[in-house]
Amino acid sequence: TEYVIKNIQWTTGNNFTVERGRQQIEEYISTWEVHESWLHWSEFLQEEELKYSKKYHYRVCWSMPTRRKPIPRATASVYFVIEISKVKPATLPVEVFFTLESSRLIHRPEQCRFREKWLKDIIESKMILMERL
């Protein structure tokens, strides 16, 4: 069977606020198929003023604490950018992109199925690095 990519209805440029952007990122990541043991928190990082748009940068930090290790040794971050065009009508939805820590590949919510394995791979590579040091 074909997988349907889950997305949300993103706010329009004229209804955007920094907090609304963070809430929508939370709403979007709630559609991801990740095990319930993963915990995350999100934060606004910065606003970037460009000639034809404004970009709002966010980070969602993921970890998998356990009873034995309630403070995880490593975390995995997913970085979101919400872009609002200065030339397109403000009634259009904002553009959203995300990248994973240690990766340059840019994902778009409407074109990408998030994989829990990506988070595991980031944490695993950090653990291997810490053991070598």
UniProtKB/TrEMBL annotation:
<dbReference type="Pfam" id="PF14469">
    <property type="entry name" value="AKAP28"/>
</dbReference>
<dbReference type="InterPro" id="IPR025663">
    <property type="entry name" value="AKAP_28"/>
</dbReference>
<dbReference type="GO" id="GO:0016301">
    <property type="term" value="F:kinase activity"/>
</dbReference>
<dbReference type="GO" id="GO:0005952">
    <property type="term" value="C:cAMP-dependent protein kinase complex"/>
</dbReference>
<protein>
    <submittedName>
        <fullName>A-kinase anchor protein 14</fullName>
    </submittedName>
</protein>
<keyword id="KW-0418">Kinase</keyword>
<keyword id="KW-0808">Transferase</keyword>
<dbReference type="InterPro" id="IPR053084">
    <property type="entry name" value="AKAP"/>
</dbReference>
<dbReference type="GO" id="GO:0034237">
    <property type="term" value="F:protein kinase A regulatory subunit binding"/>
</dbReference>
